Amino acid sequence: MIMNGVKSALCMLIVLISIMVTAPLALAAEHDHNHETENVVSTGGAPGMISVGTISALAVIVAAGALIIRLRASASRLSKMTAMMASMTVAMMIGLIGGTLLGIWLQSIFYATVIGVTIGVAAGILAGQSHSWIAALDGILSGVMSGMMGAMLGVMIMQEHPLLMILFMDVMMLVAVGSLHQALAAEDKQPVGHDQQLETTETKGAEYSPFESL
To answer: Which of 85, 89, 100 is nearest to 63 (CA)?
Structure first.
């Protein structure tokens, strides 16, 4: 339990530091972007935009990697709902932010969608497959949806405030990571077999018919 708390705190700290480092770079690059929008679009990105996107991508990789490792290590103790929500969260986080960054960098909906969906689906499979293929399927579908949405957002947002959007996505990622860690910590506190007992009780309740006593 102590090690899980330490890992959760370290993961949250890494993401928080990355956001704090990204914020001033995003604001400075956004100022330049407002004056050089056409040049940025034609060249595919400014140095500030590349730096912000790289830091954001690394933060997502670290956070998602830590979550996937923890999910695969504690898969046997997780309930079906928690495993499905966890795989969906990881796939959504990877696909949405990855698709957005690729859409901004590549300015191509096709390539950004293909790559974003691929990495989102791969993250969903890695996060859910160790528990069940139902959880993996939930992650796959979330990866497909988030990859497409992120790619469209990245291409469309380029004309307005792309760097602030990246920063906003990082904040949303921090909230999602924190919520998922809290859910996993709550599952770890449950006694072994608690989920099976609950499922058995629900099954018996579903099989009971009031007409049997008549």
So the answer is: 89
48: left (phi over 0), alpha (psi -120 to 50) or beta: alpha
pLDDT in tens, 45-61: 566 677 778 888 888 88
Residue 38: CB atoms within 10 Å: 8
Q: What is the pTM of this model?
A: 0.69
In angstroms, the CA 128 to CA 80 distance is 10
- Chain mean pLDDT for the chain: 75
pLDDT for the residue numbered 14: 56
CA distance 14 to 5: 14
CA 177 to chain CA centroid, Å, is: 8
Cβ-contact 142, 88 below 8 angstroms: yes
DSSP state of 190: S
Show Cβ contacts of residue 68 under 8 Å, excluding neighbours closer than 6 positions: 90, 123, 126, 127
